[in-house]
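Our preliminary data section would be incomplete without showing what the modeling component actually yields. Below, a chain of 166 amino acids is followed by its predicted structure, encoded as tokens that our downstream tools consume directly.
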Amino acid sequence: MSEQANPRVRPFAERLHFIPRLIVRHPQALLVRLFRNYIERAPGWVLLTTKGRKTGLPREVLLPCERFDNRVLVISTYGWRSNWMRNIQSHPEVRITCEGQTMDGRADIIEAVLVRQELVSAHPFFVPFPTHLLNAIHRTILRPLWVPFLRWWVRRRPVVVIHVRQ
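Predicted structure:
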């Protein structure tokens, strides 16, 4: 049985998804519009453009990410209820903007828990800080603490790997 069909394994945050949808949705769109130049170049972030599952219109969301080998790793905090997750289930072809480049890709949702845990162990996923020193501390000194947390975190959350076309 897939995790998507089993409501017992869904993250608690998924039940609270209505709160950020009401509060964050429009301010995030405004922030993306105001700071697009910075966001498109910010390390550790990706501007993901999906195709709306109902309208077919482009939908943008700003997500923290981990990049490796022409791939981008993102995690859905709110599980399957995130609009961007439901959009890529319907239309896996996406566009990403990161480090000043816009690229097309295909989003693959990783179903197997062990594979998700292996991915975050090999490519730890840290929400980036605006200073290199704090990012370096996270990736070195705090890594032994973060990796077990990430392995626990992804047990109930979808992990998406976007394969970027060059």
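The chain has eight helices and seven strands. The two ends are 35 Å apart (CA to CA). Preliminary results of this kind motivate Aim 1 of the renewal.
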